[in-house]
Amino acid sequence: MAAKLRGATVVVTGASSGIGRETARAFAAKGANVVVAARRAEPLREVAAECEGLGVGALAVPTDVTDAAAVEELARRATARFGRIDVWVNNAAVGLFARFEEAPLDDYRRVIETNLFGYVYGARAVLPIFRRQGSGVLVNVASMLGRTSGPYVSAYVASKHAIQGLGMSLRQELALDKAKDIHVCTVMPATIDTPFFGHAANYTGRAVKAMPPVYPVERVAERIVRLAKRPRREVFVGNSGRLLQLQFFLAPGLAEKQAAAMVDKLHLAQDQAAPATSGNLFAPTPEGTTAGGGWKSGGSSLPRAAGVGLAAALPAVLLWRRLRTGPVASNPGGNGTAKAATKPSVTTRIPARRAAVVVPERPGRRPQWLVLARPSRRAAKT
C-alpha cells in the first residue's frame, strides 16, 4: 500500500480533529502528500506540521465546506501545489441533539448544509479533476446511522441517509460513463472515540456522551487508507454497526424500538444536566482539537452495552434462521392450487450463491421467489 500511495495527493476535510486529523496522519505515514481543510486554522497548521515531519508535502487550507466557492478554491490550491488529486475524503460533519419539534430550524438547516451539501460541494469540485486524470477515489464518511436511525438526531440521520444515496447515485453515473478507474466509497463508522460529541449542538437538557461500544479513531483512518488502495462501495467500521443494520433489515419495527431505548439510556446522561447550545454549528469551538475524544478511558459501561447490543441482535438472528429454513406450503392436490398451511410460511431455503426476493404470500397461495442470478452459458447461447 505504501508504495502505491507514496507521492499521491490526498485531500481531507474536517481535518482539525477526530477522524479527519487521524486520517491525514495515516496517509502521510504511507508517503502521500496531504491537503488538510477545516474551519480552524491553528489546528490545521499543527496537522500539516505533523505530516511534514513524516517526510511528505502538506498544505493547510482553512475551509468552510458550506461555502461552495471555498471548496472549489480548496481543490484549486491542492492541484496548484501538487499537480493532481488522487484521493478526496469528505469528512467534515456536525451534530445536533434535540427532539425534532424542539430543534431550532436554523440549527437543523446547518446540519444539512454541512453534512450533505459539504459533501456535494466536495464531489462537484473533485470529480471533474478525476475525469481529466482518468482516475481517483472519493471517500464519503457517513455513519452506521446512514443505514439505521436513532432519536434526538434526526437532522444527522437524514444527512447520513442522504450521503448513502448520493454515493449510490454517483457510482451509477460513473458506471454509465464507463469511468471504471474513478471510485466512490462510503464509510459507515459506528461510535468512534473523537471530540465530535463535545462539539455537537444540544437542546435535550441532558449531557451528550459517546454511546458504547466505542471504537478507536485509528480504525476508521486505517479503513479509509485501505480504500484508497482497494476501493469498495460501502464498508462498516465497528461490528455494532453491522449488527444494528442486520436487525433493522430483518425486524425494522423491533429494531426502531430497541434502538430508541438504547440511545435514550446510553447516549444521553441520566443524571447530568446540560445547557442549550448550538455547539460548533455556526462557529468552530477552541476545544477538542485532538484525534481521540477520551471516551474510552472509563470503559466500565462497555461490557454492559455489549450485552445490550447482543440482546438486541438476538431476535434478528432468530428471524434470519427462520427465513433460511422455514417450510413451504404443500400442494397435495397437484392441480396447481396450494393448500394453506395452519401458519403460513414465510420462505424456503435460499439457494447457494443466489439473491432472492420474497413476494409476500396471500392466504392459500404458495410463497413465490424472484430469483436473481446470472444465466448459465448454455442458456445464454440458446
Structure described in brief:
The chain is globular.
Structural features:
single chain; 382 residues; alpha/beta; Rossmann fold; seven-stranded parallel sheet; two-stranded parallel sheet; 12 helices; 13 strands; 44% helix; disordered C terminus
Can you characterise this structure?
- The chain has one domain: NAD(P)-binding Rossmann-like Domain (Rossmann fold, 3-Layer(aba) Sandwich).
- The radius of gyration is 24 Å and the shape is globular.
- The longest helix has 29 residues.
- With about 375 residues, it is an alpha/beta fold.
- The strands form four sheets. A seven-stranded parallel β-sheet has the order 3-2-1-4-6-7-10, sandwiched between helices. A two-stranded parallel sheet has the order 5-8.
- It contains twelve helices and 13 strands.
- Helix 2 runs parallel beside helix 3, helix 4 runs parallel beside helix 5 and helix 9 packs across helix 10.
